């Protein structure tokens, strides 16, 4: 089995923990077509709708989700090895390709050996429990299996799938392409811009998941495109063991960013004798918490660790182009008893089964947008799709 490519680099508000994307808010705003409630055509604002599309897939995120969704079936190959998550991740990739009809594809995985973020901050993700052996085995097998099947796979030494997605988005932007990141990880909200959208995979699968663009991102985060990382730095990220500014949650962070654009602007106001401007937005208590040395240190550290690399040495777009070779895909997957049949059509250049796929509606740009994410009437964000894990 051939190994995936291992590349080395050349020498911002968000949902509260446990919450999911505001599908109900998108529907209420008229931004979900009657034909499909979750994943409209991924056309980011400011980009020609016919520009080629690069699909950048977070392999770790989707494999985690597939494992939890299908573990009850305990599907194994002839050698007794678990394959349910492997089958699930290929199915999710194929479904995303069927939804969005990309011109090219890249799948990123975390480097399991080293981590530049953990080298800087040893507590990074250190609280996470050991993965179940069946999940660990499939995570170890997935990059090589997908590469053997012909999918372009990148594992960047010391870096994560998020960095591969960010570098893919930059590659697409430089080339006049669009990019859609496919992930269940909210960190990728930071990638949304005029050429990059995010298909956030939820419990309903690809068909029930929203595509986030600069227009729709504020519905589910309360902040504009380009601000998510600042929001996350202020709020912190418990899933990564990164505390933020004590007592500052996503709604307070969103109010700050509505007034000051970035974390740096907030602290510039505090340091330049303009504390009253910050106090008018969030009150004296929050100002006091922002001023503590611990808050400053946490926020600065979070900004560094949450920043994704956009300069990893990816293959060029010609090497990432679809379609894949059907014979190669079937041979590699079949060797592990992973058989998907007609669902692979969008990856291998086939025709969609007429009874299963139909054209997708576009975003309804004329509909007015609400001022922020849904809440319960008392200011608390609503968990619109409860129970789905943060698959990182």
UniProtKB/TrEMBL annotation:
One of its GO terms (molecular function) is DNA binding. Keywords: DNA-binding, Exonuclease, Hydrolase, Nuclease. Signal peptide: none annotated. It comes from the Bacteria. Residues 1-20, 356-392 are annotated as: Disordered. InterPro entries: 5-3_exonucl_a-hlix_arch_N, 5-3_exonuclease, 5-3_exonuclease_C_sf, DNA_polI_H3TH, FEN, HhH2, PIN-like_dom_sf. CDD domains: H3TH_53EXO, PIN_53EXO. GO terms for biological process: DNA replication, Okazaki fragment processing. Residues 51-323 form the 5'-3' exonuclease domain. SMART domains: 53EXOc (SM00475), HhH2 (SM00279). 5'-3' exonuclease acting preferentially on double-stranded DNA. This is 5'-3' exonuclease. It comes from Pseudokineococcus marinus.
